[in-house]
Amino acid sequence: MRRRADPPGARAADDLQQPTFIRRLERRDVPRLVRLLATSQPWLRLGYGTADWRRLLGGPLADRDAWVIAEVGRARGIAIVRRTFLAGGYLELLAIEEAARGSGLGARLLEHCENAVLACAPNFFVCVSDFNDGARRFYEGHGYVQVGRLDDLLIPGSAELLLRKTTGPRRDAPSTAGSAPRMSAPRGRGASSRRSTARLR
Ligand SMILES: CC(C)(COP(=O)(O)OP(=O)(O)OC[C@H]1O[C@@H](n2cnc3c(N)ncnc32)[C@H](O)[C@@H]1OP(=O)(O)O)[C@@H](O)C(=O)NCCC(=O)NCCS
Q1: Cα dihedral 18, 165, 61, 106 sign
Q2: Which of 2, 146, 166, 170 is buried most deeply by CB count within 10 Å?
């Protein structure tokens, strides 16, 4: 899981020198983070257990970036970001150790992920369970807006709310001057409007 060719022990020494430090997930973090996640809401209620977390964190994280926030060398939170999702990225997992919640670590980790994604694409998405009031407040406070509701996605009777933070549309509006195609006035549904659509392709 170590992505850079650091000499053995170098990253651990960095962690100890800086009180709070965001770095990539490493193999040594996995047991502690599996414990954190396997004993934490909302995932207990959603039915995720130790085996699920071992499988996720222990295997290769294709097309994803995994970050931890560490204090004095210990991982106290994790974020996993899927790099491509719609016109942006998707925050697949964000969790802070229970004893450290409410002290700003979640905000730091979220901002780190946002900066990485929004530097290259205009959207960052996350799903939050409808019953997870604390996390809903947290994301709202960071400028996320609900753009969808996925009923019964993970467990019956509960919805995942799709939230979005955006810096704007991916493309500028096409110029209307010069070569823009001419549209005929709409004449109702059916064959004639299908022909208009075809002309625009
Ligand atoms: C949501 C979470 C990542 C926020 O990280 P954090 O370090 O606790 O948050 P911060 O200290 O940066 O910000 C505090 C804000 O987070 C929210 N919050 C959510 N759960 C909280 C908790 N257990 N304790 C304190 N704040 C919490 C509150 O809105 C709080 O703001 P407020 O004090 O004005 O109400 C973290 O609480 C957590 O891991 N929760 C459980 C897992 C989870 O729900 N993850 C998100 C799944 S989509």
Answers
A1: positive
A2: 166
- Residue 2 falls within a domain, yes or no? no
Domain extent at residue 187: 17-195
Does the beta carbon of 96 lie inside 6 Å of ligand 1? yes
Q: Which residues of the chain have pLDDT under 50?
A: 1-9, 184-201
For residue 12, being part of any structural domain is answered with no
pLDDT tens digits, one per residue of 138-165: 999 999 999 999 999 999 999 999 999 9
Question: Residue 77 belongs to a domain with what CATH number?
Answer: 3.40.630.30
Check residue 190 and give its pLDDT. 36
Q: Which atom of ligand 1 is nearest to the CA of 43?
A: 42
Structural domains in the chain (count): 1
In a domain, 147, yes or no: yes
Q: What pLDDT, on the 0 to 100 scale, is given for residue 72? A: 85
User: 123 C-alpha to center of ligand 1: Å?
Assistant: 22
